[in-house]
Structure formats: structure tokens, C-alpha cells
Amino acid sequence: MHLLVAAHDFYPDPGSGGTGRYVYETARRLADRGHGVSVLTRRRGDVSTRETVAGVRVARYDLDVAERSAPEIALQLPDALRTLRGHLDALPDPDLVSFQGTVTDPLLDVLVADEIPRTATFHSPWPTEYRIRAGHETDDDRLSAPRRRLNAALRERVERATLADCERVLALSEFMADKLREVHGPVADAEIPAPEIVPGGVDAERYRPDAGTYAPMTDGDAADDDDTDDDSPGTDFLTVRRLSPRMGHGMLLRAFAEVVRNRPESNLYVAGDGPLREELAREAQNLGIADRVTFLGYVPDEDLPRAYATADCFVLPTRKLEGFGLATLEALSSATPVVATPVGGTTEILAGLESDARVPTEMVVESVDASALAERMRDWAALGPDERAAAGRACRNHATENYTWDQTADALEEQYKKLT
After folding, report:
1. Is 386 exposed, middle or buried (0-12, 13-18, 19+ CB in 10 A)?
2. Phi and psi dihedrals of 386, rounded to 5?
3. Cβ atoms 314, 239 nearer than 8 A
4. How many angstroms separate the CA atoms of 364 and 334, rounded?
5. Which CATH code, of 3.40.30.10, 3.30.1490.270, 3.40.50.2000, 1.20.1250.20, is assigned to 215-402?
6. At what angle do helices 385-402 and 326-333 cross, to 10 degrees?
7. Are the CB atoms for 43 and 137 separated by under 8 Å?
């Protein structure tokens, strides 16, 4: 089988996110099994137009869509289509196309012959992502400017048409399957196949409890803790997120300020960069917790396993649209318990730990609220070393038994074989 993947981004390209990691991890495992795999994606940064990465052919094209109007994007389409056509001519003929790339999906849908079967992995609704980036808190277009309403409507129409061309649609979580139905209506009406669930995974050999210590999370901790009158060990909380509004960092800082009132020896480490960096630093200062909060900035991918392993507890304060939660799995695989808001696919991942006797307190917060988040963080901060260690072992077992990338590749291979 030769699989052709339309990708939003591709790890390790600059700025690659969760979908890029998903495409990379699944594509290389399918290639390892003897399948031909090609990925078409937009070019980001100073990377090659064509290359082979981990046995996967990768071809990139130029198309700038961020902060661009529909006419500005349309002017770039002829060149983008010509480049993609050239890539397709140079690649093996596909037996199957997998859409995973928003902008790339409809372009490839036009260029690939109709008789080639199509499938889509629905990572997130394109119009909703656009509304969030544009600063809207809801999907109610009556509240947005006419141009933004038009841009959102165009994305919705294009995405629906592409999904309707597919013989099979996959989603990483029940939450995202529900989002598909919410945005595009009953699937029968849109002629979109009912989504089937294929969760993402984690590299358990890479993310492990003995990955090592991340020095920026330990430098100076002992001296700081000596200044407190509390003999209990400090709790090091970690979050790994892009610093953007929907990620909930402001809420996390307010919650941590409540934690520090009772647990002044606690620390919060914020990994990631983004447009809110300076604003969040000011908020930490205003809340009086700047000496307990460390903004780590961008943490290189090779350092992330050590960061997860060093933390006592990982916090995912997402406010909306957490499609799956790869960071959640990376923390669990590192034997680091997770505290998460009740948003998106992360709750489905953590549900399997609710009945484990080794996990002494709940992981999912009752509501998307700073006080509720603080309460759950305090619960974890109050645990002793033995309880934390037992909970960590349960987390590691849950991730390795249920969410490996090999399991994801198994499920994808089974789905793809049905169409070829």
C-alpha cells in the first residue's frame, strides 16, 4: 500500500504542533511495516522542499494563510497547486489518501483522481480554530465582523466538502467526533461518514520516569525551600503549552496563587512560548507568585522527557478545544500524575485511571475555574512521597498498556486496509 498524507504540519519542522507529531509518529511506523508513505505539507521555516524523514517521503509547498484575507490566500493558490502537482508527479501513485491538513486537504482533493479512496483524520474543526485565533470565545458569528464571518463560513464549507468526499472519517476522541457533528451537523445530512475513534499515542521508551533531571527545574529549589517553615517536600507543577489564550495559563496562575497560600514551598514551571509571555509574567508578579513561577520558554524536544520526569504533577488548564491530549500521555508515560480541566479528549484518557486504587485523588477538575483547579492541585500537593510514587506507577501503566504509537498504527493499518 502507498499512503499519501495531506498534513497541516510535520514534526520536526519549525512550529510543528500536535498534529505534526501525530503524522510523524504514525507515518514512520507504517513505513517501518513496509508501506510506502508520502506526506504533503506546507513549508515552515528553512526546510527542504523534498526530503525523506524516517523512511517517509516529505514534500512541502508554500502557502501563507495566517492573518491573510480570502483574496490574499486565493492569489497564492495557483502557485501552490502547481507545486503540489509537481510533487504528485514525482511521488508513487497513491492507493489511499489520508486528509489531515486543513489547507492542504482541499488542494489535494482537487488534484488526486476521484477513483483513489480517501480517508480523513479529524484533528479539530477548521472554522472553530479560526474563530479562536481571531479572538472569539464562541462559535456565534453574529458577534464577529463580516469579514471574519465570511472567512469562518468558507472554512466550514471547504472542510465539509472535503470530509464528504471521504469513504472513512477517523477521530482521536469521542469529544472530537462530537465536535465534527456539532460543526457540520448530522453526518447523514452532510454525507460525511460517521467518525470512528482511533486514539493517538505516546513513545513510552522516550517518555519514561528515569529519563533524567531537567536542570532548569531544580536549580535553586533547595535554597528557596529552606526559607519556608513547612517540613513537607515541595510540589513541582509543570505545564507544557503554547502561551495563547485558549490554553488557560492565566487561570492556572490564579489557581497556583491559591495553592501557594497553603503550600508556599510549591513551584510552577511553565514550558512553552507564545504571544502571552510578557502578559503572564506581569500577572505572576501582580499575584505575588513571581518567585515561585518559572517561565522556561521554549523547551527543546530532546529536553521534554526530562522535564516531565522531573515534575511532581503535570497541569493541563485548557479552556477549550483539547482534541486529544498528547502532552497528557507524555506526562502519564513519565509516571507524572495529571491535573486537567474537564475539556476535550483528555478526560477520556484519564477516565481509565478513576478506578485505580493507587490513584488517591481525582485528576479531572470539576469545572473550568481557577478555584476548582486550585482545589485539585492542593489535593496532589498534600500527598506524601509514597502516594505520589504509587500514583505515578499507575499512570505509567495506563499509558503503556493503552496508548502506544504502535497501537495507533495497528488501528490505522486495519482501517486503511479496508479501503484498498
Report:
1. exposed
2. -65, -40
3. yes
4. 18
5. 3.40.50.2000
6. 120
7. no
> How many Cβ atoms are within 10 Å of 256's Cβ, its own excluded?
27
Which residues share a beta bridge with 389?
none
The reported pLDDT for the residue numbered 402 is: 95
The CB-side HSE value for 192 (13 A sphere, CA atoms) comes to 26
pLDDT in tens, 73-108: 889 999 999 999 999 999 999 999 999 988 999 999
Domain-wise residue ranges, the chain = 2-201+404-417, 215-402
Q: Are 282 and 315 in contact (CB under 8 A)?
A: no
What count of residues does the chain have?
Answer: 420
Q: Residue with C-alpha cell 488542494? A: 107
pLDDT bracket for residue 137 (50, 70, 90): very low
Are 173 and 200 spatial neighbours (Cβ–Cβ below 8 Å)? no
* Helices and strands of the chain, counted as H and E runs: 16, 13
Dig out the grid coordinates for 347 from the structure: 478526560
| Domain made up of 2-201+404-417: CATH architecture | 3-Layer(aba) Sandwich (3.40)
Cell 482541499 belongs to residue: 106
The angle, 0 to 180 degrees and rounded to 10, between the axes of the packed helices 126-133 and 174-184 is: 90
The pTM assigned to this predicted structure is 0.90
**Is residue 34 within 8 Å of 55, Cβ to Cβ?**
no
